[in-house]
Every structure is written in structure tokens, then in C-alpha cells.
Amino acid sequence: MSKQKVELLSPAGNLEKLKIAINYGADAVYAGVSHFSLRIRASKEFTFETFKEGIEYAHARGKKVYATINGFPFNSQIELLKKHIATMAALKPDAFIVAAPGVVQLCREIAPEIDIHLSTQANVLNYLDAKVYWDMGVRRIVVAREISLKDVVEIKKYLPDMEIEIFVHGSMCFAYSGRCLISAVQMGRVPNRGSCANDCRFEYTLYAGNDDHGTLFRLEEEPGVGTYIFNSKDMNLASHIKEILDSGAVDSLKIEGRTKSPYYAAVTAKAYREAIDDYYDGKFEPEKYQRELHTTKNRGFTDAYLIHRPFEKVDSQNHDYALSKGSYEVTGLVTEDEEHFYCKYKVYPNEDIEIFTPHNTVLQECDNEIGKVFKKEDGLYYINFKKILTDTNKELESVHSGNVNKIKLPCKLPYLTMFRIENTETNID
Questions:
Q1: Which residue of 23, 39, 126, 156 lies most exposed, with the fewest beta carbons within 10 A?
Q2: Does 208 reside within a domain?
Q3: What superkingdom does the record give (predicted)?
Q4: Residues 111 and 242 in one domain
């Protein structure tokens, strides 16, 4: 087994999601600023100022922040990249996540005090490549998503001091470790420079042509098969956490999803936190974690390649749809003062709404003129509003996501607690 408890690493697409991931159980988060990150759309949500605030927030709670500088720069960008590295280093993140060998060297020259983690985009599958990066100063490798657990163990055997990070949850790319050019060809958005348009998720119509005859036939799809020919299911290894940790070769479990919702950040962090803690406590319960993970939006789940080889799998693609709606809708988020919430969907009086709380939270029941917090026979806590009052005491018949007023709670609830309702109408089975 590993010398110390495995790390849980969550995505942080913005400051709010950073705080959510940490409060719901992550040991560390990864995020970026500007176009040198491979999630340029998510990175635009962070400024240097809010990124600094996020690092300070994490460090004050004993958590870590890894800064993504994992894009592939052109020559014309190198001077700008040098300034970016220096600026990011001054914010004191715990590591840089880097993909290109030249950028690894640049980071070592400009910010030798910052640890280097090698991005999965570098496609490390064996101990030979891992050794090359170790000699360059890399101290953690995010191995390729196509790697097997057996090969992870082999790398650890040859390089016992190299930290190894693996993806355990999130979107999968049909191309090799994300090395894709489809959206560059079709949309002019370059996936490996942070602006993937997710063209693999589109529905395609297939044709057969004959150049000699000049004919073109539209291929009719078999009913129920569909035309999402590039669409991969999402990775979900929660049921295999025991197997992974038993190997003793993995130092960090990584969740994909900087562009995903705050609810996704919360549920994945909490579910995998419980899976890790339960493993060390000797009471691993896969069904419990899967129940929560299946409430998030997904394209169907697969255990991908870590446990099984690609040729052994027949369930890694989703031919029917590109994105399910998920079985739950977040309807409220508790504010920092813990006395109000912001509506994220819709809330009506006299409805029982499930309370989804940050990790290790203990709730107290209450009942007053505003509403009540109570526990049902299913073991879950619910909130029911008798009145919907704004922070200025204006009473509303209902509240919807367009309303930006803070709404009073019947009693204090932990910051970033979510209210959720089952949304069976939009769930895709």
C-alpha cells in the first residue's frame, strides 16, 4: 500500500467551484488562468486575482492548488509564456501541470521552487518515458488514460519516488489521450491549445460514395443505434477504488471536469472522498458511491481502460445521445453567511427538498415560521419552506433562478450546501 493516504484531486473551473470541491472533500484542486491552459473556456473564469484568492483559500484549509500550464505554445507565444510562468509562480501554487518538454524546462529555469506535474497529454505509458521526465525534474506524472493498472505498478516499481496520478472519473476522448484535430478541422478550434468544440459529441449522418459512378447514398442507421459515432461514455472508476489502492502504486486520484457544473464538482468530490475514506476504514461500498455519481449529468458510464484493455470492452461508446440531463436538479445554494440561499432552479412553499451538504457535515433540525429542516425515514435531511422571504423580508409566492435576491433559511446551514430535487422528466434512462 502507499506510504500515505491517496490524494483526491478535483477540478476547479472558477473560484466558486474551487471552494465547493474543497468543502465537499477534495485534498487538492487544479485550475488555470489564460490560454496556456488546456481548458481555455474554464480558465477565462479565473483572473490572477481570483486565482490568488483561491490558492489562499485552499492553503488556509490545508489543501493544495495545482496550476495548469499544459497548452502547447507556438514560437510566437514563448516570450508571453515566460511572463505567464513567472506571474503564476508568484501566486505560490503547489505545482505546475505541464505537457510539453520544452515548457517543463522553462518552468524549471524560471520557477525552480515550484514542483512540476506532467500532464496526461504527454501520454506516458511506460517507465522509459517516465524516467526521461524524472531526469528533467518532473516529480509527478498524470499517466495516459489508456494505461493499465498493471503498467502503473510497473512504473512505480522502476521509479518508486515518482508520484503517479490517474484519472478516475469524467469525460473521455475517443482520440488517443485527447490528441484530436476534429474540432480544429471543422470549427477552427484547436483541442490541444485549449478550445475543443466537442465535435465528437455531435450526431453525424453517414454516406457511401462511388467516384466512378458519381453516386452518393445516405446510410440508414439501424433503429436504436444512432449516429453518435465518436461519442465516448464517461469514465467512472468508483467501484474499482479498492483495486486501485490495493496496488500501492497510485498517489493521486483525479476527477476531470473544469467546465462542468458546481453540482458535478460537489457530488464527485463527496462520492470519491467517501470511497477513499471507506477503503481505509475497511468498509468499501461501491453501490453507495455509484448512487450519488449517477445523479450527475453523464453520457453513460464506462470503466474505460485502467482495469480492462480497450479490445476487451464493448460498452465504451454511447451511440444514442451526447449528454443526459441527470436525475437531479440543483435548486438552491447556501450563501457564505449561512443564513440565506440563492435560487438556482425553482423553489415553492410546502415542498420537501433534499439537502445535499459538504463533507463531514452535521445538521440540526429546526421548525419555525419560515420553514423546517428535518430528517426522514430514508436517513436524508430535507428542507420545507412555509414562507419564501427575501433578505429584505419581502414575501414571494415562489422563487426562480432569475431572481438574484438572497432568500432566508429557517435556520443556519453550512456554506455551499445545495438543495436538490429529482428531475425525472428530463432524465435519460
A1: 126
A2: no
A3: Bacteria
A4: yes
